[in-house]
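Dear Dr. K.,

Following up on our conversation at the group meeting, I've run the structure prediction for Protein transport protein Sec24-like At3g07100 from Rubroshorea leprosula. I'm pasting the input sequence below exactly as I used it, so you can double-check it against your construct before we proceed with anything downstream. Let me know if the numbering doesn't match what you have in your notebook.
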Amino acid sequence: MGTENPGRPNFPMRPSATPFASAPPPVTPFSTSGPVASEGTSFRATLPTASQVTTPFSSAGPAVGQGVSGFRHSPPTRFSDPSVPSAPTSYIPPAGAPFQRFPTPQFPPTAQAAPVRGPPVGQAPLQPPVAQVPSPPVSFRPQSSIPPVSKGSPSPTVNFPSGLSQSDSSFPGTGPNFQPSFPSASSSYPAARATLQPPLPGYVTKQPAVPQASPMPLVFHAQPGSYMPPPTPSPPFSAQQGNYVPAPPLATPLGLQSRDQMQYPGSMPPVGGIQSLMEDFSSLSLTSMPGSIGPGLDSTVLPRPLDGDVEPKSFVETYPLNCNPRFLRLTTTAIPNSQSLVSRWHLPLGAVVCPLAEAPEGEEVPIVNFASSGIIRCRRCRTYVNPYITFTDAGRKWRCNICSLLNDVPGDYFVHLDAAGQRIDLDQRPELTKGSVEFVAPTEYMVRPPMPPLYFFLIDVSVSAVRSGMIEVAAQTIKSCLDQLPGFPRTQIGFITYDSTIHFYNMKSSLTQPQMMVVSDLDDIFVPLPDDLLVNLSESRTVVEAFLDSLPSMFQDNLNVESAFGPALKAAFMVMNQLGGKLLIFQNTLPSLGVGRLRLRGDDPRVYGTEKEHILRLPEDPFYKQMAADLTKYQIGVNIYAFSDKYTDIASLGTLAKYTGGQVYYYPSFMSVIHGEKFRHELARDLTRETAWEAVMRIRCGKGIRFTSYHGNFMLRSTDLLALPAVDCDKAYAMQLSLEETLLTTQTVYFQVALLYPLGGDVNKRYTASCGERRIRVHTLAAPVVADLGEMYRQADTAAMVSLISRLAIEKTLAHKLEDARNSVQQRIVKALREYRNLYAVQHRLGARMIYPESLKFLSLYGLSLCKSIPLRGGYADAQLDERCAAGFTMMALPIKKLLKLLYPTLIRVDEHLLKPSSLLDFENIMKRLPLIGKSLDSRGLYIYDDGFRFVLWFGRMLSPDISRNLLGADFAAELSKVILIEHGNEMSRRLMGILKKLREADPSYYQLSYLVRQGEQPREGLLLLAKLVEDQIGGTSSYMDWILQIHRQVQQNA
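The predicted structure tokens came back this morning:
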């Protein structure tokens, strides 16, 4: 695309303006709008008879003209019209157009016609005879003799004059006008200027408006994945000075061909078949709506991800030996073979990894123990044995799929090969048949013996923490989870509390009550009784329980408002650095004493919009980043629980979680009565979910490509080794890919993720003898190498793309303004769609259509949702600084499904289902999602909004009082901000609570609290729900429709 081909004719540069400045559009082989000519054929254009009607595959539009003549183009001939001779039934494709899948009529050859000239401008031409035009082909089925187009491949493009690239000259950007010659037998023949625009699969053709002619009705056939607004008139399509107008292809009537086309009938792009084109792209018509002046669009045809994340099943079926997509997904499963192709791919090229994702239901990651033979690995690149290696030399050697090195097969692992070259024990070797396996690692993989799982709790006990009830909920939850902590019976546990001083607790098993030791010297921290501050849980269980029972009352009268968080953090590090483990911090007050004290910032609105804005989102004190590095070095992972209703500088505190593989939980204005259940559930899951300790992760890939940048919560230990002191099933990591070589020569590239970790225990199992062994979880994936940009678009994975783009945008806010981050998201989408449009701008008259790959049809909406998300939206007044930073830390670690649900939440209507008999209830019907737009809300309904972190129950103003009374009890008429949703003793209430329970069980990583709001309750309704309807225009932000139009205008500027 954009390269020159001297074998094809160049278009003339900037002809003088004429009434014929607008070139006719292409006619596809399945159009019945007019006659079709092949090489060496001549005929006379004929006005179709009046008896013709529109057929399903016809686009019989009116002529486009500027008043030169009153010629009108009638509908095409009815196939059964006896007055017109039938078309030939056989067809041999011309040499110049080998990619056509549908037959075009073949006409009898005639003698070579001498060059002729068209009629003078302004002269009224005569009409040609009617009976001299052959009818279109009777069948639209492709003939067996026609070579088919490879699935989804784009048609070749037109080459441009020297010095012009396609991006410069393709419609409708700036470029030379192309004006074809119009040969005619004599001046008495009309200049054939009828618009023969065929409908393209996947979108609806708009007919140009013409004076003195009304458009004919069209029959529209919906294709899978297409969006078809009703046809509406559009302004006449006229060429502008400097614009390139696509020339007609070979299938155009001879009367509309230029001399160059007659001499080189294969020089223009062939038109693909219906199925090929439909798979290539879909489109939206952005022309004027009836009765409007400006561009318009029917909002009902906009693509929406109402089914949530859909994993790429076709790719899984093509490569069945790959790991499950929930472990590893690529942004496109077609890897570019050259740097030039990468430069035209304006979207991120990379992967999203969730190494400990929960396996699909009914499946488990198989465990492989090589025992005496040791783990089989490539001796050069260290790739683990996987389904894509090949065995040679009668099974004595195996070839690495990553670096192609031949390796010897250990004697203990050797078996003979069958006739197909496969091992005869293949069905007994999961490492050779499964994309995901877990190897038992021998002792040489251990830097030190696996440490026992350690949980250490650092708890703020200042007055605000006591009054909020946080201490009581934390103590109760920890106590309830003691039996479920992984690693029994080796689990270690310890506690430190702090306000203006630091409190250590001796919990030695010989004691009946814990002993508290207070250290008030914050400048020179020391650890009293270092051997007794960490205890074995199974040995000191009674002492630990006694401490947790007494903790809330111990500080109930505390009036201390200070927070010596920095010194307390250093003390915790000194206690833990021998074993490593997980540090859980419960912070309720801005650190105010000792090292790491912080000050109020971010309350100056004048900083927003300036070059200093991003500094607010960075840690104020380098102490926190240095502590994070030290914690990671000693294998300590940190999770932050922040509760304050005042500024606590999450930007600084969150750094501890970011670089240690942890996460941030934020509960603004925490009150145990309201938020206690959410805190209790999320803390319990944090304590009991499967966790990998002291883990390191590396992802290997084939020769010629490498990963250059990594995004998520971790510490990068070397160029490609991620240090993860604690990693679990709720964390994902993104990375970007680049090509090291100018051209890849392989047909397939392979990726392998390896996570090395000691096994601390599982929430569902009790490990005794196996406790302390190391495991290596390996995920392997193969992907094809392509030389076609169109194929990269077709194999794109929107979900993985959005996950990577989100991380890049959030990281951009740490060095630039929020506006710059939002613009970067939009520009990525614009450049990608512009490049994609250029693939088709030559062979198809696109006009005011926005085209996009079917695989990326939701990308624009997710981009809009990302720009409206808390980390990126608005400015000073749109989100509190702590809320913005906490959301950023959370989104950086979310797996794909969870992130997509946060960006485009679920909205469902439930009042109709609450009234149905129990026997008719169907949960799938209840879960029918609605577009996030105000029009989806009916004032007579009850709706649930679910973003994965909270529920919002919206009660319509005209909702039946009986429903409200059954669900809310005596408070049904009260202000809903003061009502807490609980189960009442009736079937309707139990049914609603059952629906909420099922929604929570679908993703247990976070707990959704229920917020109730009634229609019209402001500002509560706006804050809780209306501002979250991402498709609406709220607070100066773009609506979905406006966003699409903005992107389309920018795409057209340089397309």
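Two things stood out to me. Residues 818-840 form the longest helix (23 residues). The chain has a mean pLDDT of 77.

Best regards,
J.T.
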